[in-house]
# Entry
Amino acid sequence: MAHRLWINGQWTESRGGGMMKIENPATGAVIAEVVDASRADVDAAVQAAKTAFYDGRWNKKSPGERSKIIWALADGLERRIEEFAKLESENTGKPYKFVSLGGDLPFAVDNLRFFAAAARDTHGAHAGEFMPGYTSMYRREPVGVVGQIAPWNYPLMMAAWKIGPALAAGCTIVLKPAPGTPLTTLLLAEVLAEAGIPEGVVNVVTGGNDTGQAMVEHPDVRMISLTGSTGTGKKIMKTAADTLKRVHLELGGKAPFIVFDDSDIELAAGKATAAATLNTGQDCTAATRVYVERSKFKDVQDALVAQMEAVKIGQPFDDDVAMGPLISGVQRERVNGFVERARAAGARVLTGGGSPKGLDVGYFYAPTVVADVDQKAEIVQNEVFGPVVTVQAFDDETQAVAHGNDVLYGLAASVFTRDVGRAMRLASQLEFGTVWINDHLPLTSETPHGGFKQSGFGKDLSAEAVGDYQITKHVMIAHA
Ligand code: NAD
# Structure
């Protein structure tokens, strides 16, 4: 099927853009074609969003009206949840039952409901007399037209994480899904219309990196929100400087998973496995670096290998499958490259490190545990974005914190211990946007998610996300 662009509430032909083929990564088959939007397409979408912003068809509605429409969007998505989940699995290879239908889609629906409620929270807007004879009023206003650029690992969920807070804040939007995974975001356009989102308030433009670049360069876009790699975040920040746009960057991660010797070993190994293999490890908060206190190192390592070998890998539509393929052949090469270079440098691959048995077609990669690595090794320092963990021993709390923090990233970390004092000390010393104690991965719509250091800045989820799409205006009224 060939798709068009969703601009100003209508399916629109491209103004000179090409077409891109969309693959099913479990089979390699081409399943759709989408527009590789041109600069003129981006401009048309921005102009539609600009008109919709300045005529107030969205931001001049009462919070209650906006909330009702965002809620209707959540309902519309929920009504068609199986259709969305099926398409997401076809486009990404995610297990249908366990991930798309069991995780991504319900979370997207819940997220939109959270932001429907947040649209009515007027916290932060207040007035006071701070100088005799004057009243000061703070208005929280929407930033304006925002460009939102999504990654391929959670296509629809990231779209919901982005449009939810921006709509709650009163912004209008040009949304670009990742080049290879646009199908559920295009389907979402149908639901936007059904829910009553006014024309031009959310525009969906498909395309590659140049399309994203055109959004970042556009002078009428006031803010860019990116979820993507750290390299892309740096490029976007540089480009955005020319028009002094706000940037909201949710970037890469390299989460440490720190296990002290008082932990339940099977629990820790099970959580590490789940957090390393969910979404085939293509998760910015995935557990990637397992650090174990030396006295329990061998026990945890053995339990981890056993649990990683027990993960059920297979075709996305088989019922009991927990892990599907990687997103593409390029990604498989990338992941395998990290493992092979580590092996060549003297690391031991305890399990995995290639295709799982019987799954040579598609981009499957076995859950992989790599030992005998140095803290400065490439595989310990860089984001692999596949089902691969390294294991290292540590001697004491100080070393655990030092190794945990010793990467450029700062998105998420976890600590396994029964000692509350130690848990609290590490929670404050680890430089990550999220620190889990005795778990790794859970998030809810209420919990702020975002990075420290080179994992970016700005928050997704929670009321803080709405604040990121607003700007404070001070109005001062003389009583005379
Ligand atoms: P990517 O950086 O390659 O692409 C992300 C998006 O940016 C795509 O839509 C792409 O077309 C666009 N893009 C690329 N170059 C651009 C440019 N110069 N100007 C404008 N847009 C541009 O990332 P990806 O490979 O799609 O996604 C994986 C990455 O995303 C990983 O690093 C992962 O950690 C990160 N991620 C982060 C979070 C988070 O919340 N922090 C969540 C999910 C994924």
